[in-house]
Amino acid sequence: MASERGAVVQLEATQDAGTGVRVGRLHATLLWYARNPRMIELTLFAFGVLVMGLVMAFAPSGFRPTPNYSDYQSFYKPPAVSLLAGKGYLGIHGHTELHDPPGYPLLLAFEFAVADLLHVGREGMVNVATVLILALAGVLIYRVGRAMFGLKIGVLTGILWITYPIEMLMSPYRFSEVPFTAVLYLTALIFVDGNVRALPSWRRIAVVGALVGVDALIRPQAILLFVPYALALWLRSRQLRRESGSDAQPRVARRWGALALSGVLVLAYVATLAPWEGWVKAETGKTVLLSDGGPSAILNGLTVDFHPMDERGTAHLPSDVIALEKRIVAHQKSLTSTGKIAHYMFDQLHEHPVAVIELVAIKAGRSFYGTNSLTHESVIAAVQAPYLIFMVAGLILAWRSGRWRRWLAAFIIMITAYMWLMTISVLSIVRYMGPTLGLLLPFAALALVTLWEWFRRRSQPRPAV
Predict the structure, then answer these.
(1) pTM over 0.70
(2) Residues 106 and 19 in one domain
(3) Co-location of 27 and 52 in the same domain
(4) Domain check: are 71 and 156 in the same one?
(5) Which residues contact 46 (CB under 8 A, 6 or more apart)?
(6) Residue 20 burial (CB < 10 Å; 0-12/13-18/19+)?
(7) Contacts of 292 (CB under 8 A, 6+ apart)
(8) Which domain covers residue 17, as residue numbers?
């Protein structure tokens, strides 16, 4: 790729600059890696396996899910076991499992089948697959950073992601965020790489739409993820028209290019979901949007510190917010649909506006440090702070650079804003935001590299006057 050739040229120029100046071992190593990009990926993958494996093996119990009380035991594992037993896609109570989409249970069924074929433990195979998928995600986010800002920032992005505590702590959790993260980064990589010089081809956009569908089949919070992608296509189309001039493309292509590609995106997305939606309708007679677990997830997020089986810690909430949550708990048996919950919360907003606004603000903040166990939150907040500062700084730098980098910043801001809103609407914890925060790490790497280059310039001796 052009970024790799640019890195080689840059490193070779460094080697040749200044007669008699000897390139150090570090520069020689970087030059060799620049000429062997696959070795970068293999090195990052091995590093990811090592780090995630160590975290899985030695993470303290406080950073693990409560035993026998998790989505894995209740909703993901039972249909996978049922499928392999030939009983169909059934949940823990023997009914068709609709609480979550089928993406992660189907992946677990595959992992269990491989374990049975190899005559090894199923849970051990899940652990191995978790580590490998997270290591693969580290390679994919490196590729995203490289597509955005070049080889150097791409490598730093991969290292930052693998050592980012928020991502590291996904490894002890056998939850759907693990495969969702890898698919999310692959989707972003294909989309960003296709927009480098022009709008992507319809084939590439069809792949992006299908992958967005896979994202949604793994985690329902991606149900409208195609919206920021479509908006990004429109922004990129406008940007390309401004850069190339109004007569550079045929009028129809200029007017309808982004709109047509957005249509392909949505069609591929819908086609990916159609088999699951059709099967559910034929099997149960119900029409569900990915799953029927939405109302319970929303109620769970509206009643922080009211789930003693899972919440081992305590959240410090204002008294009016606690009173609001008590009213929600008292009415939860009647709040059986998203519409009913929305109607009830609008009534509460009219009667108790301050309490509702406070609750939403608390949930927005907790999305970056909260845990479902309500433990270690102050530590997570302290760790998050410098990362978030560099992420925001990198977004500002990219935006001020204009053109390609400004579009990248706008695209990731839209993805982040969408995922943030979805996290606020349900259980607002950092584990739900973790995959999206990884997409901000290329900007943190950009800020770090910019800061390093600024320090190098300041440290250089000034020429004598």
Answers:
(1) yes
(2) no
(3) no
(4) yes
(5) 135
(6) exposed
(7) 98, 99, 286
(8) 1-35
330 vs 317: CA distance, rounded Å = 18
Is residue 132 assigned to a domain? yes
Q: Considering its fold, how many domains does the chain have in total? A: 2
Whether 329 is covered by a domain: the verdict is no
Asked if 281 and 166 sit in the same domain, the reply is yes
Residues 26 and 55 in one domain: no
Contact 229, 208 (CB under 8 A): yes
Residue with tokens 């209740």: 74
* 252 and 213 within one domain: yes
| Contact residues for 328 (Cβ-Cβ < 8 A; gap 6+) | 299, 302, 303, 335, 344, 348
24 and 119, same domain (yes or no): no
- Residue 301's contacts (CB-CB under 8 Å, 6 or more residues apart) are 363, 424, 425, 426, 427, 428
- Residue 12 to residue 386: CA distance in whole angstroms: 34
**Pairwise CA distance, residues 151 & 19, whole Å:** 27
Residues 241, 146 share a domain: yes
- Distances 247 to 196, 243, 305, 402 between C-alpha atoms, Å: 20, 11, 60, 22
Q: Is residue 179 part of a domain?
A: yes
Q: How many residues does the chain have?
A: 465
pLDDT tens digit at each of 465 positions of the chain: 545 555 544 544 444 444 344 445 666 666 666 677 788 999 999 999 999 999 999 888 777 776 666 788 889 999 999 999 999 999 988 899 999 999 999 999 999 999 999 999 999 999 999 999 999 999 999 999 999 999 999 999 999 999 999 999 889 888 899 999 999 999 999 999 999 988 999 999 999 999 999 999 999 999 999 999 999 999 999 998 888 764 444 444 444 688 999 999 999 999 999 999 999 999 999 889 999 988 989 998 898 877 766 777 778 899 999 999 999 999 988 998 999 999 999 999 999 999 999 999 999 999 999 988 888 899 999 999 999 999 999 999 999 998 999 999 999 999 999 999 999 999 999 999 999 999 999 999 999 999 999 988 888 776 655
In this structure, is the dihedral angle defined by the CA atoms of residues 429, 430, 431 and 433, taken in order, positive or negative? positive
List the beta strands (DSSP E) in 214-256.
none
Sign of torsion over alpha carbons 303, 305, 306, 312: positive
Distance CA 389, CA 444 (A): 8
> Can you say how many angstroms the Cα of residue 175 is from the centroid of all Cα atoms in its chain?
13
List of E strands, 132-283: none
In a domain, 235, yes or no: yes
Q: What whole-number distance in Å separates Cα of residue 274 and Cα of residue 216?
A: 12
Do 338 and 301 meet the contact criterion of CB atoms below 8 Å apart? no
Angle at 106 between CA 101 and CA 109, to 5 degrees: 145
